[in-house]
């Protein structure tokens, strides 16, 4: 993405860490957790790769097409999976946003704007969607009636902790907003 180097590397680290945690979630005993975690891992690692600052590494022109194909396939998979789980509709929007960013980067590498003034309508719509998603996800992280010191969790593993999965989705939503702001 076109942006300054330090925030770019922080974005890479955030997305890569999220991808790693999603890989851990794929070991869950809950089938629905495993399914969602696979798509989220692809998104996390893909976002990390796309967020590498251009000052550090400028990918070859064909890389944006390759990213677009990967995210296009992810979007198709999310569309198919949305039949059984509405959460996959969010994955579909995320993958479509990534395809959109790949197209923008392929068409205008090195450019910070699209020839006009203001934000393009599709970028604005995606920014509104992901900003709303971030706010909603943040509210969902706040425990309702949480009791301080109640550490009786049972034998849940890292992959079965819904609050960590929500935190990862929140961080990927924040990363998506940051990436959309830079194109």
Question: What can you see in these coordinates?
Answer:
The protein has 183 residues and is mainly alpha-helical. The protein has one domain. 68% of the residues lie in helices and 0% in strands. It has 6 helices and no strands. It has helices at 5-25, 31-50, 61-81, 87-107, 121-141, 162-182.
Summarize the model shown.
This protein has helices at 5-25, 31-50, 61-81, 87-107, 121-141, 162-182. By secondary structure, it is mainly alpha-helical.
Chain-wise SSE layout:
Layout: H1 5-25, H2 31-50, H3 61-81, H4 87-107, H5 121-141, H6 162-182
Largest beta-sheet characterization: none
Helix content: 55-70%
Write down how many β-strands occur, each being a DSSP E stretch of 2 or more residues: 0
Please compute the radius of gyration using only Cα atoms. Answer: 17 Å
Quaternary status of these chains?
single chain
**Class from secondary-structure proportions:** mainly alpha
Question: Which word captures the global form?
Answer: globular
Which range does the strand content fall in?
under 5%
Q: Please mark out the parts with pLDDT under 50 across 5 or more consecutive residues, or reply none.
A: 147-152
| Count, helices | 6
Average pLDDT confidence is 84
Count of the separate structural domains: 1
Run of helices and strands: HHHHHH
Q: How widely separated are the two ends? A: 7 Å
């Amino acid at each position: 993405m076109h942006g300054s180097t330090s925030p770019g590397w922080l974005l890479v680290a955030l997305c890569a860490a999220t991808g790693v945690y999603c890989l851990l979630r794929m070991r869950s005993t809950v089938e629905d957790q495993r399914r969602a975690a696979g798509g989220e891992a692809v998104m996390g690692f893909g976002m990390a790769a796309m967020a590498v600052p251009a000052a550090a590494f400028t990918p070859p022109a064909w890389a944006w097409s390759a990213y677009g194909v990967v995210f296009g396939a992810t979007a198709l998979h999310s569309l198919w999976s949305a039949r059984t789980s509405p959460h996959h509709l969010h994955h579909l929007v995320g993958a479509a946003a990534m395809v959109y960013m790949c197209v923008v980067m392929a068409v205008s590498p090195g450019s910070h704007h699209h020839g006009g003034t203001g934000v393009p309508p599709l970028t604005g719509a995606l920014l509104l969607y992901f900003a709303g998603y971030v706010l909603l996800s943040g509210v969902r992280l706040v425990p309702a009636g949480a009791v301080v010191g109640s550490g009786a969790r049972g034998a849940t593993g890292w992959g079965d902790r819904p609050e960590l999965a929500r935190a990862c989705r929140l961080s990927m939503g924040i990363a998506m907003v940051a990436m959309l702001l830079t194109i």
